[in-house]
Amino acid sequence: MLVLLAFIILFHITSAALLFIATIDNAWWVGEEFFADVWRVCVNNTNCTEIGANFQDYSTMQAVQATMILSTILCCIAFLIFLLQLFRLKQGERFVLTSIIQLMSCLCVMIAASIYTDRREDLHRNNPGWYSLTLDGSYGYSFILAWVAFAFTFISGLMYLILRKRK
C-alpha cells in the first residue's frame, strides 16, 4: 500500500512539474531561428517581444495564458487537499474532492492546448510583424508537454476517484 501511495504522489508531482514547464517555458512554436509561446515571441534568440495589448487577437492568448495558469494552480491545490484528506478521511472513504479539483485542472489544460491548436494559424497570420519569420515552424516541446500534462492530470484524477483510504 505504501508503494501505491508513493506512486500516486510521484505521479501527481510529475503532473504539476509538466504543467509548470509547459506554462513557463518558451517553446510552444519553434523553428531554427525563433521560438514562441503564450507569453512572448523571440527571433534570433535575442530579440524577444512580449505579447501584449497591441497583439491582434490578444484575448485568445489571454485565454490560453489564464487556463494554463489556472490548471497549474488547481493541480497544486489538489495535491495539498490530497495530503489533508490523507490524514482527515475515515477509513474506506474516497478522495472525491481531490479528484474533482484534479479533473478541473485537466479540463483547463485541455482548453488551453485546444485553443492554441485551433487558433495558432490565425494568430500567426493576423500578427505578421511578430510572426513573419515563424511560418515554417512546428509545435515545440512545451506544447507537447501541455498535452502530456492533460493525460497525466486526467489519469491521476481518475485514480483519486477510484482510490479509497486504507489503514
Keywords:
single chain, 167 residues, alpha+beta, 5-stranded antiparallel beta sheet, 66% helix, elongated
Provide structural commentary.
Helices cover 66% and strands 9% of the residues. The protein has five helices and five strands. It has a five-stranded antiparallel β-sheet with strand order 4-3-2-1-5. Strand 2 (34-36) and strand 3 (40-43) form a beta hairpin. The longest helix is centred in the middle third of the chain and has 31 residues, at 58-88. This is Epithelial membrane protein 2.
List the helices and strands and how they pair.
Layout: H1 2-24, E1 29-30, E2 34-36, E3 40-43, E4 47-50, H2 58-88, H3 96-126, H4 128-131, E5 138-139, H5 141-162
Antiparallel strand pairs: 1-2, 1-5, 2-3, 3-4
Helix pairs in contact: 1-2, 1-5, 2-3, 3-5
